[in-house]
From TrEMBL:
Record protein name field: Tc1-like transposase DDE domain-containing protein
InterPro entries referenced in this protein's UniProt entry, alphabetically: RNaseH_sf
Gene3D superfamilies attached to this UniProt entry: Ribonuclease H-like superfamily/Ribonuclease H
GO-annotated molecular function: nucleic acid binding
Top-level taxonomic group: Eukaryota
């Protein structure tokens, strides 16, 4: 809409951080927002895919089996693999940026 684009183009509006970002930065942390609906740019999606694969292989396809296996599924992905997922996504982001 015209009003939204006009407002978004104003310098003070562009420089205003969202409440979530302000709260996180105020506590001394850094925050990175990824584009919405771009799973190839967010390494957590690969992590979830690995955990879901583990669940499919190890649960008995009932709620009790699911509840028992979720902690093991989360722990089944090595940190080295998570770092590899992150690096892969960073390369894709860099390719988009170029």
């Amino acid at each position: 809409c015209c009003a939204r684009s006009t407002l978004a183009s104003q310098r003070d509006f562009r420089e205003q951080k969202g409440k979530l970002e302000e709260m996180i930065v105020a506590r001394g942390h850094h925050i990175i927002f990824y584009p919405k609906f771009h799973c190839e740019l967010n390494f957590i999606e690969r992590f979830w895919a690995s955990t879901k694969h583990y669940i499919r292989e190890h649960c008995q396809y009932n709620i009790q089996g699911l509840r028992q296996n979720v902690p093991a599924a989360l722990a089944s992905v090595p940190v080295k693999t998570i770092i590899a997922y992150y690096n892969h996504c960073e390369r894709i982001i860099d390719a988009y940026a170029d």
